[in-house]
Every structure is written in structure tokens, then in C-alpha cells.
Write a structure and sequence with these properties.
The chain is mainly α and about 325 residues long. The chain folds into two domains: about 70 residues; about 210 residues, no CATH class. Helices cover about 80% and strands about 0% of the residues. It contains 13 helices and no strands. The longest helix has about 35 residues. The radius of gyration is 23 Å and the shape is elongated.
Length: about 325
């Protein structure tokens, strides 16, 4: 789209935004997302134009209005889960995609390495775990590891570990995004080799029905934490037309919000692993139900709903 047409389509909207900022928190957040989208588009196609500088000025004003210290409404937590977090997923959809792709590539590398090197799984998972699993397979209970501790004990341990992994994945982004990519690759390679190990034992389908009961939410959360890390790192590397300090502040706050938003997912995943996964003999339809519902929820909340909220806030319009 030519710059003149872009300006013509949006000039009145920008003027209205500039003259009167919304007082409602939800509306202010929605308009801010819309402005950052316009700014991103302008920076991509007209990086040195007056339009980009103009949008940068308006966006900075909205940013200050949103993040200045003020008393939060009682419905703030509802707004966060219902609107703010989904809008962040839409705003940073590219980072989510990149995180997913990095992880998938690592999974493929891990599976391929395990296939062509018999010692690779032991190198990644450790001799202790592999020996224990082989013993469990010989006993006819390959997933006995999920039954070794009590439900509540497992729930607490797993929840704390999952939150630790997510925080580490996110905070590693401060090393110019490279740290997060390394963590994503490490976890992806572990998953790929781990999953291939069970397929090589003729337990592929059984492992999917068992491990992915909790793994669907757990792995999805790691990918989302990776996106948060990329947001943090990119705010340092690529401030665009924003002052670097402003870019880092904005990226840090938004990435922290996404990281915090993962806590309920990890708690649910830990609950499933601690209380449900141990029932390895449950009917297939129950396992599939939990797995499919978890997958559909992640797709709906991170992809479908964010797009729906964004389009609704912008009267069904988007950039061409």
C-alpha cells in the first residue's frame, strides 16, 4: 500500500486518538494495540517518513497513559485474562510463531539424532532415567514413573519445576533473544529424543496418550514463555523509532505480563500430571478427551480469540 493511501485511510482515526484518549482502561488498551499495529506497519514500509514519526509520538502518549501509576479497578484481573493478555498474543503473534518454529525444529533434530545415534537419548535424558524406564517396560508398566510419589507431592514439585523452566526460558531473552532460543532448542531436543525413545520401543501411541495429557499445556506454555523471551530480547535489539529506554520498558512489561499469564496453565498441567496421568490404564476416549480439549483451548486462547478481540475492537478492519 502506498503511504498516501495508508494515511488517507487512517488520518481521521489518528486525529481522533490524538485529540481525545479513551478514559476506559479496556478501550485505552485496545486503541493502544491498534496504534502499535499502525506504527509497526509504518515502520516496515515507510521507516524514515513523517508518518512514522507522527505515529511514534501518539503511541508514546498512549503508552504513558496506560502505564502511569493509578488505582486499578476491581475488575482489573478479569480484564487481564479476558482482553489484555489475548491482545498481547495478537500484538506479538510473530514472536509466538518464531518461538513455535524454533521449538519444532529442535524437536525434529532431537528425534533424528536419537534415531541415528543409539547413545543420544542417554546423553540427553541420563542413564538413570533410561535404565529405570527400560526396567518399567520389562515389568509391563512403562509409565510407572508417574506413580512413584503421592498426588499432592507430585503436583507441587511439578508446578514449581514448570514455573522455574518457564521463568528461565523467559528471562534468558535478556541475552539479546539468543538465550531464549538456546533454551527452546534444549527443551525441544529433549522432547524429540524422549518421544522417539518410546516410539523405538513400540510405545509411541501409548506415550502420546499418557505423556501428552499434561504435556499439551506444559509444552505450549514453554513455547509461549519463549515468545515472551523473544519480546524482551527484541525490545533491546530492535527499538525501531522508539527511544531504546522506552522500547525496553514496553517490551519488559509486556513480556512479564505474558510470563505471569502462564502460571495458571502450568498449575493445570501439574494437576493433570500429578492426579490424572498416573492412571495409565484409563480408557482411550478419556485420554483423548483431555488431550484434545487442552490443545483446542491453547489454539483458541492464543490464536482465535486474540484475533477476534482485535477485529472487534477495530470494527472488523485490518491492514492490507
Amino acid at each position: 500500500m502506498k503511504e498516501a493511501l495508508f494515511v488517507k485511510r487512517n488520518a481521521q482515526k489518528w486525529k481522533d486518538f490524538e485529540q481525545k484518549q479513551p478514559q476506559n482502561t479496556d478501550e485505552l488498551a485496545e486503541k493502544y494495540i491498534e496504534l502499535t499495529d499502525d506504527l509497526a506497519y509504518s515502520k516496515t514500509f515507510y521507516p524514515n517518513s513523517s508518518t512514522t514519526k507522527y505515529l511514534n509520538g501518539i503511541t508514546s502518549g498512549f503508552h504513558q497513559s496506560i502505564y502511569k501509576n493509578k488505582k486499578e479497578s476491581k475488575s482489573r484481573i478479569v480484564t487481564f485474562w479476558k482482553t489484555e493478555l489475548p491482545l498481547l498474543f495478537y500484538q506479538y503473534r510473530k514472536q509466538l510463531l518464531y518461538s513455535f518454529l524454533f521449538f519444532i525444529v529442535a524437536v525434529v533434530i532431537g528425534a533424528a539424532s536419537a534415531k541415528f545415534d543409539d547413545n543420544f537419548v542417554r546423553l540427553v535424558m541420563g542413564d538413570g532415567y533410561i535404565n529405570m524406564t527400560n526396567e518399567n517396560i520389562a515389568k509391563g508398566d512403562p509409565f510407572a514413573v508417574y506413580k512413584q510419589a503421592g498426588e499432592m507431592e507430585m503436583f507441587v514439585q511439578i508446578a514449581l519445576n514448570n514455573i522455574r523452566v518457564a521463568f528461565y526460558t523467559f528471562i534468558a531473552g535478556i541475552i539479546f533473544s539468543f538465550g531464549t532460543v538456546i533454551v527452546l532448542f534444549r527443551n525441544g531436543i529433549m522432547l524429540g529424543s524422549f518421544q522417539y525413545f518410546f516410539f523405538s520401543k513400540g510405545l509411541g501411541w501409548a506415550s502420546v496418550l499418557t505423556i501428552w495429557l499434561h504435556g499439551t499445556l506444559e509444552i505450549s506454555s514453554i513455547v509461549i514463555a519463549g515468545a515472551a523471551g523473544l519480546i524482551l530480547g527484541n525490545s533491546i535489539l530492535f527499538p525501531g523509532t522508539l527511544p531504546r529506554k522506552t522500547s525496553i520498558l514496553m517490551g519488559s512489561k509486556n513480556s512479564i505480563k505474558i510470563a505471569i499469564g502462564l502460571v495458571p496453565l502450568f498449575l493445570i498441567a501439574a494437576f493433570i500430571e500429578g492426579f490424572i496421568t498416573r492412571h495409565t490404564a484409563m480408557p482411550i476416549y478419556l485420554s483423548l478427551s483431555v488431550l484434545i480439549i487442552s490443545a483446542l483451548f491453547i489454539i483458541w486462547y492464543t490464536i482465535i480469540q486474540p484475533k477476534k478481540i482485535y477485529f472487534k475492537a477495530n470494527n472488523g478492519t485490518t491492514k492490507n
